[in-house]
Design brief:
Pfam families: Biotin_carb_C (PF02785), Biotin_carb_N (PF00289), CPSase_L_D2 (PF02786). Keywords: ATP-binding, Biotin, Ligase, Nucleotide-binding. The protein is of the alpha+beta class. It has 3 domains: 4-92, Rossmann fold (3-Layer(aba) Sandwich), CATH 3.40.50.20; 132-203, 2-Layer Sandwich (Dna Ligase, domain 1), CATH 3.30.1490; 209-460, D-amino Acid Aminotransferase, Chain A, domain 1 (2-Layer Sandwich), CATH 3.30.470. The protein has 16 helices and 22 strands. The protein has helices spanning 11-23, 40-44, 63-73, 89-97, 107-114, 116-125, 143-153, 179-194, 253-273, 305-312, 316-324, 331-334, 405-417, 434-442, 444-448, 455-460, and strands at residues 4-7, 27-33, 47-52, 77-79, 101-102, 157-161, 170-173, 199-203, 209-217, 223-235, 238-244, 278-286, 292-298, 341-348, 350-351, 357-358, 361-367, 375-379, 386-387, 394-402, 420-425, 428-430. α2 (40-44) links the parallel β2 and β3. The protein starts with a strand and ends in a 6-residue tail after the last helix.
């Protein structure tokens, strides 16, 4: 087992990893920027190292600073959390070169799945198919070739950044006359966000559902799918409410169970063919018919991993650490059982009435409901702290479990009703999405389980999807 782990992240995920390390008796190191000097994750760790000023490019994305912090503190493992450097091949290589264990997939796997075009090719090779689209990148300057490729795919279609993630560098195009502009915009966004201007096109699935499968692979021949998560409640192509198992109609009944198993098997084929090691998520998009297409692999822990933990009783961070320490899949992983239903709501400092614009400010009041076996509060903030514009405005994840889906939703709604958070921005009170999360949970389309990725934004705009 690793002896000392540096957590190369911040906020709630850093706190989440630190808690598991402490339970396992592993010494911990936090890193922090000047903006996070008083953050909870810094206080939780046994040691903490400053790595730079507030902007992520000058702190949390500085590879040599993080590796040097591990060297200086004697950390023998680095957990990257999610986001930031978690899927960065160069970071994983630098960690390994420093003689430190990277708690994640090997660099070659990060390369294969970090490039969305390569990932699509890899999935096809494993017999798991993405939506029809271009086989390689599209040159935004070659308008005629792009139009021919688009006509063969059909409209509406998606333009996507090859190095993208989190909905960045992605646009739906319904009008052929707007294709060129979308290609250029996505290419520019990909260059700015990922240093990669390449874009490709694929068919846009009407009324899509976003469904993903949690996997664990030990690199010794052991691989398991730990169920699927429904992630279709989104804004700006990013998730805000997730649940497991998926309530989609095509997963119901005996035929639905067959389809669910096929989905899990497809996910395992994709990752095992790549020599995957650790925790990961294989993402799919589903058409109304239930036809499922490969989207991508997130080669890291997902934000929404907590719902899987609530239904399996497993600590995925613990098993990431055990796998990175050279252990095979534990008996409790191989013999896991799924219990009940879990739903997670992401509480953000953002204003749904203003297209979910971030709302920086100081937290002037904060009260959480009492956690327990049926409720988890995952947070990295505290009263008095500043929510800055430098980082993602996620405040907390509130996760509820129940014997049935209706009971899990009711428990989560109750927890949100018992949550108090007040933000004061430069110009006065700042908004959160707390009330909007309750609106989602109480909506008839969500309650029925028959919602898609357009649902949440339509609800916020006052015009339901339909």
């Amino acid at each position: 087992m690793l002896k000392k782990i540096l957590v190369a992240n911040r906020g709630e995920i850093a706190c989440r990893v630190l808690r598991t390390c402490k339970r396992l008796g592993i010494a911990t190191v936090a890193v922090y920027s000047d903006a996070d000097a008083s953050a909870p994750h810094v206080a939780m760790a046994d040691e903490a190292v400053r790595i730079g000023p507030p902007p992520v490019r000058d702190s949390y994305l500085v590879i040599h600073a993080i590796v040097e912090a591990a060297r200086a503190t004697g950390a023998d493992g680095i957990h990257p959390g999610y986001g930031l450097l978690s899927e960065n091949q160069a970071f994983a290589e630098a960690v390994v070169a420093a003689g430190v264990t990277f708690i994640g997939p090997p660099p070659a796997v990060l390369h294969a799945f970090g490039d969305k075009i390569l990932a699509r090719d890899h999935a096809r090779g494993a017999g798991v198919f993405p939506p029809p689209g271009t086989g390689g990148p599209v040159d935004p300057a070659d308008v005629e070739a792009a139009q021919r490729a688009a006509e063969s795919i059909g409209f509406p279609l998606l333009v996507k950044a090859a190095g993208g993630g989190g909905g960045i560098g992605m646009q739906v195009v319904t009008d052929p006359g707007k294709l060129s502009r979308a290609l250029t915009a996505c290419s520019d966004r990909g260059r700015a966000a990922f240093g990669d201007p390449r874009v490709y096109m694929e068919r846009y699935i009407e009324r899509p559902r976003h469904i993903e499968v949690q996997v664990l692979c030990d690199g010794q021949g052991g691989a398991i799918a730990l169920g699927e998560r429904e992630c279709s409640a989104q804004r700006r192509h990013q998730k805000i409410v997730e649940e497991t198992p998926s309530p989609a109609a095509f997963f119901q009944g005996a035929a639905g169970e067959v389809r669910r198993k096929e989905l899990h098997d497809s996910a395992l084929r994709v990752v095992t063919a790549a020599g995957y090691v650790g925790a990961g998520t294989v993402e799919f998009v589903a058409a109304e018919s239930g036809e499922l297409f490969f989207l991508e692999v997130n080669a890291r822990l997902q934000v929404e991993h907590c719902v899987t933990e609530m239904c399996t009783g497993l600590d995925l961070v613990e098993h990431q650490i055990r796998i990175a320490s050279g252990e095979p899949l534990a008996p409790e992983v191989r013999g896991h059982t799924y219990r009940g239903h879990a739903v997670e709501a992401r509480l953000y400092a953002e204003d749904p009435a203003k297209k979910f614009a971030p709302q920086p400010g100081r937290i002037t009041a904060l009260r959480w409901p009492a956690a327990g076996d049926d409720l988890r509060i995952e947070t990295g903030v505290a009263e008095g702290l500043e929510v800055t514009p430098f980082y993602d405005p996620l405040l907390a994840k509130i996760v509820a479990h129940g014997p049935t889906r209706d009971e899990a939703i009711a428990r989560l709604d109750q927890a949100l009703a018992e949550t108090t958070i007040e933000l004061t921005g430069p110009a006065g009170p700042a908004a959160t999405n707390l009330a909007f999360l309750r609106q989602i949970l109480q909506d008839g389309d969500f309650r029925s389980g028959q919602y898609d990725t357009r649902f949440a934004e339509a609800l916020a705009a006052g015009k339901k999807a339909g």
